[in-house]
Write a structure and sequence with these properties.
A hairpin with a 2-residue loop joins strand 53 and strand 54 (about 710-715). Helix content is about 10%, strand content about 40%. Among the domains are: about 460-565, no CATH class; about 580-675, 3 Solenoid (UDP N-Acetylglucosamine Acyltransferase, domain 1), CATH 2.160.10; about 685-740 and about 780-850, Beta Barrel (Virus Head Decoration Protein, Chain: A); about 740-780, Rhinovirus 14, subunit 4. The protein has a twelve-stranded parallel barrel with strand order 13-15-18-21-24-27-30-28-25-22-19-16. Strands 52, 53, 54, 55, 56, 59, 60, 61, 62 and 63 form a ten-stranded mixed beta sheet that branches. It has an eight-stranded mixed beta sheet with strand order 39-41-43-45-47-49-50-51, with no helix packed on it. It is mainly beta. The N and C termini lie far apart (about 150 Å). It is elongated, with a radius of gyration of 46 Å.
Length: about 850
């Protein structure tokens, strides 16, 4: 505040002049300050805070807080769940609750900024970025005890390793601009950068903007020494760490390692207690590592984003056995996010795994990753827990791959014999893969290996929105391996294969729980779209083209992919319950219940129900099968109950379902047909007939009058008693023996079938007793297809051959099997001449009424 003198001493003296001068100076200073502040306000990027700006009745701060809370709520609840351990991770060391885990990292970074009490340049401590001078001591002095921001100049600093204490921010001029390179005399076990205190751990460390050269050519060539040593950058037991815009070059072991001080934590212990927590690697590059470019061990809440890991050297392993990966989430890691990264030229692009003795990585999420020319682009496995005789993994759970791409996996000599694949899942359970794209080289020889392989006791896997093309020389686009160490519980949905492998989907033996839906497979010279040795897979809405066969399921070849459902099916049904997994209800209303196995209800209503095995109710209302007997059917019925095994009934009634409402019944055990109404032929069939065998065993043509000669027939001659006529118009035919040998069942002395009681799965049923002379292996030819057996019309209107003597109204008698006019009015009445006598044919045709002769 400016305070001016109000009452001047009017005496012209030195005091007056001093007062006047002072006030004028105050006015000048105030005006200058005002002008300076006004210019600063105009030029400032943050002239006002967000809570000082009003927009639409709200401050900008209020709206930003509101939007931030809404976004955080979406992130926290993105899958409808809230994992308690992750929620707990949002609580800061000061007891405040961050809205997301990312917010907590940001808060901790702000703390790092606030903790830094000094900012220095390492050059001021004697460091020289000339690629020659040993600057190790200068770095040690510049870093000191932490709470410092250490700036690096452009150039190459030669060091013997940098150990960073807590609250340290090491920042260079950028990748390839500032480089830290290990000194010639540095031991092989050293790191380029690591944290200072492995025993007690460190926190809030930030490394940014530099390249780290492990210099493997020093001392004539050095390599990894074992454990977690010999890497470019290692955080061990670090809480809140950042690595941004950093390049790791030719590490002895790993380019970047987020880990615990040792690699030997057993699954039975709290194996992440000494690991890192809340670490973020962003925009980093790793290449030439002796093992993996980027890796994690026994650490949790790790973010790796926008990074590139490629062309590792694999020198940490024996030649031909180098499992050198782009990004590896290894032993004991938990809650890891890999976001928008790229790998190429590695053995595995992304590997989520563990060794035999140690716990598998859990809750790992790979989002937007691109793998190019890695041998196995994405590989999930728990070594030593794959085969049937291995112990089951108790830690290999919860991995998601979202919006990932595998481009042209290839063989690599670093790991001899490892076959290229886009995705492999072994031993892991609860794996969800969404929006996955695999692009192959049509000319590359994949040696009939699968593109995607689910194997080695993996379980509970969902593959959704899968696109595969170009793997022309692969064996399968997706293969589900069976056998003793089979995969199982697999969902495949919304997939597209285009001109890719010889076979689309292959299901192995013993794999029973598979759902395949909504797929389009367009092959080009392929063999099968889907193959399975069993018919257990649920298949729906899958279309194929370009394969020799759309599917081969349980040995049967299909030109189309069959729709197959199991497990208590309901379709076009408003209510009802198929209570057995092998039963179905289709096109039904009302509270219908299928209680037993292999029950079917179709077109039913009114609370119909089935009991027992192999039951069916079809086109019926308020009807039932009752009891535990098998094979009962109710058809076209109202209020009908069927409690007889091996039978079909129909009928109509009112009120509750009852046996008394049955109107017709077919008995399968005895072959009986019963009905309360008439049996009526509504066609133009006119006669009642029975099968007879010809005496000479030869065929007698239609229309000839025949007589009995013993128990066989021949053409009737004049004076013979006519049995009937060879007929083609019979409405009812008896004695056909169409299904089996006439003497298949034993009969009593009066021709009645002899019955016996047998045990049918614990139930007593009565069936015909079989003749011991019956041979089911002999082919039976029914009588209708044998020349010696004839249908003889006995009663009714029949067509008869006649000679030239016959007119309408005459009676006929036989003459060599042909009807001729009766002279005495006996014989059979001629109703109509259908065809006049033809001398050329030697007969005419008349419609004659046949009746039994007395």
């Amino acid at each position: 505040m400016v305070r001016l003198t109000k009452n001047y001493n009017t005496t012209r003296n030195s005091l007056y002049e001093s007062q006047l001068s002072g006030d004028m100076q105050s006015i000048e200073n105030a005006l200058n300050d005002h002008e300076y502040n006004l210019k600063s306000h105009k030029n400032a990027k943050t002239a006002h805070t967000s809570d000082q700006i009003i927009h639409g009745g709200f401050t900008v701060a209020n709206r930003l807080d509101n939007l931030n809370a809404r976004f955080a709520n979406v992130i926290v609840n993105h899958d409808g769940k809230d994992v308690k351990e992750i929620v707990d991770a949002r609580v800061t060391t000061d007891g405040k609750i961050a809205q997301t885990l990312k917010d907590r990292l940001d808060l901790e970074f702000n703390k790092l900024e606030q903790k830094i009490k000094r900012e220095v340049n390492v050059d001021d401590f004697g460091a020289v970025p000339d690629g020659k001078t040993d600057s190790s001591e200068a770095f040690r002095k510049a870093v000191g005890d932490g709470r410092v921001r250490v700036k690096l100049s452009a150039g190459i600093y030669v060091i013997r390793g940098v150990k960073l204490p807590s609250w340290t921010y090491l920042i260079g001029q950028g990748k390839g601009v500032t480089t830290l390179k290990l000194h010639e005399d540095t031991p092989a076990s050293e790191w380029v950068i690591t944290n200072a205190d492995y025993e007690n751990g460190n926190r809030n460390i930030f490394v940014q903007g530099m390249s780290l050269d492990w210099n493997p050519d020093r001392q004539g060539g050095v390599g990894a020494t074992g454990g977690q040593h010999s890497s470019c950058l290692t955080y061990a037991k670090v809480k809140f760490g950042w690595v941004k815009d950093v390049e790791a070059i030719n590490a002895g072991l790993h380019g970047f390692d987020i880990t615990a001080p040792t690699y030997d934590h057993l699954a039975s212990t709290q194996y992440t207690k000494d690991g890192c927590r809340y670490i973020w690697l962003d925009n980093c590059v790793a290449y030439g590592a002796g093992d993996d470019g980027i890796t994690t061990h026994y650490s949790e809440y790790i973010f790796i984003s926008n990074s590139y890991s490629f062309d590792q050297r694999g020198t940490a392993h024996p030649k031909g056995q180098s499992n050198s990966n782009g990004i590896e989430v290894d032993d004991g890691s938990k809650h890891v996010w890999l976001i928008n990264n790229f790998t190429s030229g590695n053995i595995r692009g992304v590997e989520v795994k563990a060794h035999k003795e140690w716990p598998a990585s859990q809750n790992v999420h790979v989002i937007g990753h691109v793998s190019f020319h890695d041998v196995r682009c994405f590989d999930l496995r728990h070594i030593g827990h794959h085969k049937a005789e291995d112990p089951e993994s108790t830690t290999a759970y919860d991995v998601t791959l979202t919006d990932c791409t595998a481009i042209e996996p290839i063989f690599n000599d670093m790991y001899e014999g490892l076959t290229p694949r886009a995705l492999v899942v072994s031993a892991y359970k609860n794996v969800a893969v969404s929006n996955f794209t695999a692009i192959g080289d049509p000319s590359y020889d994949y040696k009939d290996n699968p593109v995607i392989a689910l194997q080695y006791r993996s379980r509970n896997i969902s593959l959704n929105n899968i696109t595969i093309r170009g793997f022309k020389k692969a064996g399968f686009d997706i293969r589900l391996y069976g056998g003793p160490q089979k995969t199982d519980n697999v969902n495949l949905s919304n997939f597209t294969f285009y001109k890719s492998a010889k076979q689309g989907i292959g299901i192995g033996g013993g794999v029973y729980s598979v759902n395949i839906s909504n797929g389009i497979m367009e092959g080009e010279g392929g063999t099968y779209g889907i193959t399975s040795p069993n018919s257990q897979a649920n298949i729906n809405n899958v279309q194929t083209s370009g394969y020799s066969y759309a599917a081969m399921i349980k040995g049967n070849k299909y030109k189309f992919v069959p729709t197959n459902f199991k497990g208590g099916f309901r379709g076009a049904t408003t209510s009802g319950a198929p209570l057995d997994p092998t039963s179905a209800i289709i096109a039904a209303t009302g509270d219908n219940i299928a209680k037993g196995p292999r029950n079917f209800m179709g077109g039913v209503s009114g609370g119909s129900s089935t009991e027992g095995s192999r039951q069916a109710i079809i086109a019926a209302n308020n009807s039932k099968t009752k009891g535990d007997g098998p094979a009962r059917v109710v058809m076209a019925a109202q209020a009908v109950t069927n409690d007889d095994s091996y039978s079909v009934v129909g009928g109509y009634g009112t009120g509750s379902p009852s046996k008394n409402n049955i109107k017709w019944k077919i008995d399968s055990t005895g072959g009986h047909i019963r009905g309360v109404g008439r049996v009526e032929s509504v066609s133009d069939f006119k006669d009642l007939a029975e099968y007879f065998e010809s005496k000479d065993g030869r065929k007698i043509e239609s229309g000839f009058l025949v007589t009995l000669d013993g128990d066989k027939i021949r053409k009737a001659e004049k004076g013979d008693k006519v049995l009937g006529v060879i007929s083609e118009t019979a409405g009812v035919i008896m004695g056909g023996a169409a299904f089996y040998w006439n003497d298949r069942y034993l009969r009593n002395e009066f021709g009645g079938i002899i019955y016996e009681t047998i045990n049918d799965n614990g139930r007593a049923i009565i069936v015909p007793m079989e003749n011991p002379n019956y041979n089911p292996d002999l082919e039976y030819i029914p009588r209708e297809k044998r020349d010696e057996w004839h249908v003889v019309g006995l009663v009714g209107q029949v067509f008869v051959r006649i000679d030239e003597t016959v007119q309408v109204g005459d009676y006929i008698v036989p003459a060599d099997g042909i009807g001729t006019k009766s002279e005495d009015g006996t014989g059979f009445y001629v109703m109509r001449i259908n065809r006049s006598y033809s001398a050329e044919k030697g007969y005419g045709v008349a419609l004659v009424f046949m009746h039994p002769q007395m």
